[in-house]
Design brief:
single chain, FAD/NAD(P)-binding domain, seven-stranded mixed beta sheet, binds flavin-adenine dinucleotide
Length: about 500
């Protein structure tokens, strides 16, 4: 059978595309997903994010190469491998980013004004909602205000700057992944076929025209034919599939014995991500998730509260309150995101500290450092090797140090006094800028927002077509030329919404 569209990857972008394209009954679509269906209950309960962190049945669980600026540590990198992709395992925080991010891409028809209607459309479909109030967050917000940071009712409004509660991709206490929000309805249509446990291993070309996809399923290799092929495998797997199929840097392909279809030096290059460093605080009141899980009685109460009312600690995930701040007064927009997380654990996805505790984390918003992602073999089951290469520039390092100093000042402000017993980590050993930088090297990690390995304008054109080929597109986080300011699921979904309109208009 020949499909109008074959989409590789049912993640944030892939589910949006499958749903929008099949709204037109004339389009037949095959959606291939390497992972399983999203049946695990932990996917749908927001706090379950921590449970899915290392679960390799629904997560690719990648690791970077040893990072020079992080004392040679590898950065653990979860990525969704399940219907909904990373939107099924992410922290649910919903942030559009700043107008200047999109305007700065410099790609025709991809500025903020062009994307705004698609953010709005996605927000209606995802039913984005705001998190419940919590006394620790109220204290954090008051503390941030006392430092001159304005209150924000909505980080997705005209200005991102300020302190307040996050919006999230959950509704009535249940996760709204793109599988839930988009795919469920679309799957009832006869013109959509979804194949799970289907790992695409190669795009099939006739000369430079993509004509199909080869995939592995149940021990068999199957070839599906399509008029248009869309790769939505995410920031690491999309360049991997292009490189495996002969679209990538010539020397890399030849090293692995892959016939070159198109020498595309930028495939896999220009990787960006938000660098992230956490500080941990002992809380003097038993109001954190750490406290909730300490006794059976409190666990049971939390479970009942969720089961009966869809409220309480189980509805919160990767962040609760935040502050978007400028680390230097001369800046015209926030460059740091400070997270208040109502629990603490040294290892993300690991056991919570056995004391009342919360986390205050800092990530950079506009990033200069860039890395790359390359295949290590011609076998699709061998993960690519990648390097984030952060923090590589003086601006990136200085921003992190200043951001962490602001986070500490917020947590030490009088409004937080009732809740702070002590700074647990790093504690008093970190005082000077050099100490903070050492702490970044020791603790720095990803906040899970890799982008840009198949950038718009370099690997794909403004119609998201892979330059130098025909009938082949990439549509996912990898096409975003520079990581937007904040959590990027919103931007990925808006890009996919706009791409779907472009495809339907052709
Ligand atoms: C742990 C975690 C927490 C995060 N927290 C947040 C947050 O709070 N807020 C936020 O905005 N963003 C967050 N993000 C980031 C955000 O979720 C991602 O940037 C976004 O989902 C990426 O979308 P995508 O479509 O590019 O890729 P994905 O959603 O990752 O989808 C790619 C899909 O393609 C499939 N696939 C890959 N290769 C193949 C192949 N060869 N064959 C078949 N299928 C394939 C994958 O299995 C996957 O399902 C988080 C991400 C993670 C992992």
């Amino acid at each position: 059978m020949q499909y109008d569209y074959i989409i590789v990857g049912a993640g944030s972008a892939g589910c949006v595309l499958a749903a929008r394209l099949t709204e037109d009954p004339k389009n037949s679509v095959l959606l291939l997903e390497a992972g399983p269906r999203d049946t695990s209950p932990w996917i749908h309960i927001p706090v379950g994010y921590g449970k899915l962190f290392t679960r390799t049945d629904v997560n690719w669980a990648y690791e970077s190469e040893p990072e020079a600026a992080l004392s040679g540590r590898r950065v653990f990198t979860p990525r969704g491998k399940v219907l909904g992709g990373s939107s099924s395992i992410n922290g649910l925080v919903y942030i559009r980013g700043q107008r200047e991010d999109f305007d700065g891409w410099g790609v025709r028809d991809w500025d903020f004004d062009a994307l705004e209607p698609y953010f709005e459309r996605a927000e209606r479909t995802l039913r984005v909602s705001r998190l419940e109030r919590h006394e620790l967050c109220e204290a954090f917000i008051a503390a941030a205000r006392s430092l001159g940071i304005p209150t924000s009712e909505n980080f997705n409004g005209p200005s991102q700057e300020g302190t307040g509660y996050y919006h999230v991709t959950s509704y009535k206490g249940r996760r709204r992944s793109t599988a839930v929000a988009y795919l469920r309805v679309a799957e009832k249509r006869p013109n959509l076929r979804v194949e799970v446990a289907a790992l695409a291993s190669r795009i099939v070309f006739t000369d430079r025209t993509a004509t199909g996809v080869q995939y592995r399923q149940g021990g068999r290799t199957i070839e599906a034919r399509g008029k248009q092929i869309i790769v939505s495998g995410g920031t690491f797997n999309s360049p991997q599939l292009l490189q495996l199929s002969g679209v990538g840097p010539r020397a890399l392909l030849e090293r692995h014995g892959i016939p070159v279809v198109h020498d595309a030096p930028d495939v896999g290059e220009r990787l960006q991500d938000h660098f992230y460093v956490r500080t941990f605080w002992r809380c003097s009141k038993p109001v954190t998730l750490n406290d909730e899980v300490m006794t059976l009685w409190r666990k049971a109460r939390m479970a009942f509260q969720y089961a009966l009312f869809r409220e309480g600690p189980l509805t919160v995930s990767g962040g609760h309150a935040a502050a978007f701040v400028r680390t230097r007064p001369e800046l015209t927009r926030p460059d740091a995101q400070i997270y208040l997380i109502n629990f603490s654990a040294l290892k993300r996805g690991g056991i919570l500290h056995p004391h009342s505790g919360f986390t205050c984390g800092v990530s950079q918003l506009q990033v200069e450092s860039r890395g790359s992602s390359h295949i290590t073999s011609s076998d699709v089951t061998k993960p690519s090797s990648f390097l984030y290469n952060y923090p590589a520039t003086e601006t990136d390092r200085r921003m992190m140090v200043e951001g962490l100093k602001i986070a500490r000042r917020i947590c030490e402000a009088p409004a937080m006094r009732e809740y702070v017993e002590a700074e647990f980590m790093p504690g008093p050993r970190v005082q000077s800028d050099a100490d903070w930088l050492d702490y970044c090297r020791e603790m720095g990690e990803t906040v899970f927002h890799p982008t840009s390995t198949c950038s718009l304008g370099r690997v794909v054109d403004e119609n998201l077509k892979v330059i130098g080929t025909s009938n082949l597109r990439v549509i996912d986080a990898s096409v975003i030329p520079a990581v937007p300011s904040g959590n990027i699921n919103a931007a990925v979904i808006a890009v996919a919404e706009k791409a779907a309109d472009l495809l339907k208009a052709q």
